[in-house]
Specification:
Layout lengths: L3 E3 L14 H5 L3 E5 L1 E11 L7 H12 L5 E9 L2 H6 L22 H15 L4 E6 L8 E4 L4 H7 L5 E4 L7 H5 L5 E5 L6 H15 L15 E10 L5 E2 L10 E3 L16 E5 L5 E5 L6 H4 E4 L2 E4 L4 E3 L5 H6 L3 E7 L4
Parallel strand pairs: 1-2, 3-4, 3-5, 5-8, 6-7, 7-9, 10-11
Antiparallel strand pairs: 2-4, 6-8, 9-13, 9-17, 11-12, 12-15, 14-15, 16-17
């Protein structure tokens, strides 16, 4: 897989649609643009081809600064252009472009490409790295970091009203970059949702103009969520959201399943119905099975076995089988 490295923006990229970006670029591409300050901001877009807010933001950035000097150097990485054509997370047979950033873990052409991107970025000592994503459930806008060091907390304080700290999945882009620069993944709601596009662009542009990343004074004191587990479903399971105990589905969740994200879900909360707990698994960051700690079946009802806070609970059956059903979090207070 060839990684293109450009030093100027192709003219068609200013106006093309996300479904046309592969025609313009031909594949994964780095665009390194010079600005007033030499220490670059790194912007990652379209690691998932159906998460289009990153491309919407990139288009706004390119057009805003088309005839202006950039406040600092900018390294843009545009990832899965082929999947963007089809509006898919990734194409069949492709690895997930946001699960290939652990150096030495895989031997696919995509892993090799990610290693080259990482090496290029590391060589240029980024000011910060921003990876823009969407999710498929009802979630607030929030930032994700892989370290609780002050500079990461400061960066995250400028996006949304919630911050999530996680170490799994360990092979995402922000994890690959956090060892040599302050890195963040921002979750900008549903794809192309106007509030997410506006917030993500405003966040990017604020960081783009900073000489030093400092804490947002409006969030100088704030708690963060720590991801401690995730829910997986059997890829063979039949799933619906009709909350029926006598149907054909192995898992029949409540219709408002994803409305619980970032809310406290108390013990004994009804989540739907399940044939048995073999269809759903809760595992911690080390892969240890915690299903019985969090879930139980009463009759046919699927019920929580303890209080927790979910994030990214999704009703997209493809996503929950290909990646996960969602995450379980706890609240922590970062040390000063």
């Amino acid at each position: 897989m060839q990684l293109k490295i450009l030093n100027e923006v192709p003219s068609k990229l200013y106006t093309c649609k996300v479904t046309e970006v592969h025609e313009v670029l031909g594949g994964p591409t780095i665009i390194h643009l010079k600005g007033k300050l030499t220490k670059p901001l790194f912007l990652s877009a379209l690691l998932h081809g159906n998460e289009t807010t990153s491309f919407d933001v990139l288009s706004q950035v390119l057009n805003k600064y088309k005839n202006e000097e950039l406040p600092r150097d900018l390294i843009i990485f545009i990832g899965n252009t082929l999947a963007a054509v089809e509006g898919m997370r990734h194409l069949p047979g492709q690895p997930d472009y946001n699960r290939i950033w652990q150096i030495g873990e895989g031997d696919t052409p995509e892993h090799e490409m990610a290693a080259k991107v990482t090496a290029y970025a590391k060589e240029h000592k980024p000011f910060a790295s921003i990876d823009i994503h969407n999710n498929t459930g009802k979630n607030p806008l929030y930032g994700c970091v892989n370290s609780t060091e002050p500079e990461f907390m400061a960066l995250a304080s400028h996006f949304g009203s919630n911050t999530v700290y996680f170490t799994e999945p360990h092979n995402v882009q922000s994890m690959g970059f956090c060892t040599f620069c302050t890195a963040i993944t921002i979750e900008a709601g549903l794809p192309s949702e106007p509030r997410g596009v506006v917030a993500a662009f405003e966040f990017f542009d604020k960081i783009f103009h900073m000489d030093k990343i400092t804490m947002n004074p409006e969030r100088a004191e704030f708690e963060i969520y720590h991801t401690i587990a995730r829910l997986k479903v059997d890829e063979r399971a039949r799933i619906d959201f009709e909350d029926q105990g006598d149907g054909d589905s192995d898992l029949s969740f409540i219709p408002e399943f994803d409305s619980q994200n970032f809310k406290v879900v108390k013990k004994e909360t009804h989540l739907g119905h399940a044939k048995n707990l073999k269809c759903i698994r809760v595992e911690d960051n080390n892969g240890r099975d915690l299903t019985n700690d969090f879930l139980k079946i009463e009759g046919s009802a699927l019920v929580t076995n303890r209080t927790f806070i979910p994030s990214m609970f999704t009703k997209d059956i493809y996503v929950m089988k290909e990646d996960c059903l969602g995450y379980i979090m706890e609240v922590i207070i970062p040390t000063k």
